[in-house]
Write a structure and sequence with these properties.
Length: 140
C-alpha cells in the first residue's frame, strides 16, 4: 500500500515542488505525493529548469494552498521551511509530522548564473534527502 505524503512550504513554488517531483520520480510505486503552501504563489521557472537538468519534469505542477487538503489524512506531512512548520494545520488520523529544513534559494527577478547555481545547490540537497526516502522509506 502506498504511503500518502504531503510536503509543505510557504509559497509552494520551489522547495516543496522539487521535493514532490523527486519523491514521485523515485518512489511512485511506494508513495502518493502532494505538495502545498501556506501562502501559495506559482511554480518557480528556475526550479522547473534545474529539475529538468536531472531528468525530472515538474512543469505541469501548480502551487496549491494547504487548505485544498484540509480534512484529508496523510501518513506523513513534511515541512521543508520553518514558516510552514509553524503554521501547519492539523491533519486527522495518525499523521506523522516531520520537519526537514532546506534553504530558500534567491527569488531574484533577474535570473543570473549565480541564482541558477543556488537553485542547483538546494535541488541537490532536496534530491539527496528525498531520493533516499523513496528508496529506503521515511525515517524520522
Amino acid at each position: 500500500m502506498k504511503r500518502k505524503v504531503l510536503i509543505l512550504c510557504t509559497g509552494n513554488s520551489c522547495r516543496s515542488q522539487m521535493a514532490e517531483g523527486i519523491l514521485r520520480h523515485y518512489g511512485n510505486d511506494r508513495f502518493e505525493v502532494f505538495s502545498a503552501g501556506t501562502i501559495p504563489s506559482q511554480a518557480n521557472p528556475v526550479a522547473i529548469r534545474v529539475m529538468k537538468e536531472i531528468g525530472i519534469d515538474i512543469s505541469g505542477h501548480r502551487s496549491k494552498h494547504v487548505d485544498e487538503f484540509k480534512g484529508q489524512s496523510f501518513d506523513y506531512v513534511i515541512t521543508v521551511c520553518d514558516n510552514a512548520k509553524e503554521s501547519c494545520p492539523f491533519f486527522p488520523g495518525n499523521t506523522k509530522r516531520l520537519h526537514w529544513e532546506f534553504p530558500d534559494p534567491p527569488h531574484d527577478k533577474e535570473i543570473t548564473e549565480g541564482v541558477i547555481e543556488e537553485f542547483r545547490k538546494v535541488r541537490d540537497m532536496i534530491h539527496g534527502k528525498f531520493k533516499a526516502v523513496a528508496l529506503n522509506g521515511i525515517s524520522e
